[in-house]
Amino acid sequence: MAYFRRTDASTFAPTDLVGGAWRTDEQHVAPTFGLLTHLVETDRTARGRDDLAPVRLTFDVWGPYPLAPMDTVVRVLRPGRGVELVEAEVSCAGRTVATLRAWLAGRADTTELADGTPATVPGPDETPSWDPTTDWPGGFISSLDVRRTLAGPGRGTAWVRTDVPLVEDEEVGALARTAGLLDVANGMTVRADPRRVAYPNLDLTAHLFRHPTDGWLGLDTTVTFGSGGTGTTASVLHDATGPFGRLAQALVVRPLG
Fold first, then answer.
1. pTM of structure
2. Helix (H, G, I), strand (E, B), or coil: what is residue 157?
3. What distance in Å separates the CA atoms of residue 196 and residue 257, rounded to the nearest whole number?
4. Checking phi first, is residue 18 left (phi over 0); if not, alpha (psi -120 to 50) or beta?
5. Which residue intervals define the domain Acyl-CoA thioesterase-like C-terminal in the entry (predicted)?
6. Distance CA 206, CA 243 (A)
7. Residue 40, Cβ neighbours under 10 Å: how many?
8. Which residues touch 30 (CB under 8 Å, ≥6 apart)?
9. pLDDT tens digit sequence for 209-224
């Protein structure tokens, strides 16, 4: 079973594996982020080209949404020969629920200039296995293979992967599959028990200095709660070959009960 099944050119149906994590009758937004990235990379009707590579992915979450059919649209906001700004949008139950604005740039060989990457972290084979369902319910979380090392509340390293296809019977690239895991950064190194404190993220921005490989996603993460009801999650992103970008999420922090 995949996370989504395409039902028409621009419509998709979620499966039960998309459920969770704050409520199991709602969708976890992580697979939707992967779907939006997949659409930006492959929609030839709106873009008509595939010679540019995403360098920034900014997702906004408009609110929770049910396990119901989804409509999508892709539009080019700023066309160009060397750079392009593309927007993808998902609607569910009659309203917009998530958007992606992606900056894409032309590819070039800058091997001789490559430098300044963050420090590497111990790989998945060197990191203990962890069951994320001890903190989070839902089909999506249960579909993940996770390795984790904690350095303290809200601070640690996690490796995450899934063997579940993003879209049924459809070829999906390494970046979209990776993007479909990014949103778990906020929940793999928790600062507070999610049964006692809610801290959903409003957004997620990933800046990429190279294209990730498929497979394990590494998250070297710090979660910070402020004193005024907000917080942030910040991660250095890794794949099996090393760091490839950085991630940031804005959190709304609320005690429960």
1. 0.97
2. strand
3. 7
4. alpha
5. 124-253
6. 13
7. 25
8. 140, 180, 181, 182, 183, 184
9. 999 999 999 999 999 9
**List of domains in the chain:** 4-106+121-255 (2.40.160.210)
Contact 249, 224 (CB under 8 A): no
Name the stretches of the chain with pLDDT < 50.
none
How many Cα atoms within 13 Å fall on the side-chain side of residue 33? 24
Write down the pLDDT at residue 48. Answer: 81
Q: Tokens 């595939």 appear where?
A: 50
Beta bridge partners of 255: 197
Q: What are the tokens at 201?
A: 């993220």
Tell me the residue length of the chain. 257
C-alpha span between 223 and 149 (Å, rounded):
14
Q: Please classify residue 222 by burial: count the beta carbons closer than 10 Å to its beta carbon, then call 0-12 exposed, 13-18 middle and 19+ buried.
A: middle
